[in-house]
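Notes taken during the Thursday session

The instructor put the following on the board and asked us to keep it in front of us for the whole hour. The protein is Aspartyl/glutamyl-tRNA(Asn/Gln) amidotransferase subunit C. We were told not to look anything up and to reason only from what is written here. First, the residues (99 in total):
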Amino acid sequence: MSVITRAEVQHLAKLARIELTDDELDHYSGQLDVILSSIAQISEVAADDIPPTSHPLPLTNVMRPDQVRPSLPANDVLAGAPAAEQQRFRVPQILGDEQ
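Then, after some discussion, the predicted structure tokens were revealed:
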């Protein structure tokens, strides 16, 4: 039994604003049917006592914690800038006044 019909694929293509030929509709409906059938098989096997996971292996954050350290003085940093104003880099305006 087909999980997704050709008409449903056509409707999805219309929603996504994708123009598909008749051959493409047949092709994609077959492919999507295989994908949805596979997902249905996995759902049948999945046990209620197994929590859903996003990855088969446990992941841990490998980044170091933030630590405050001394940095360059603002005057040294701004010394190499083409333009500075009020202890900040001065850059050309890219947006209008409509903010």
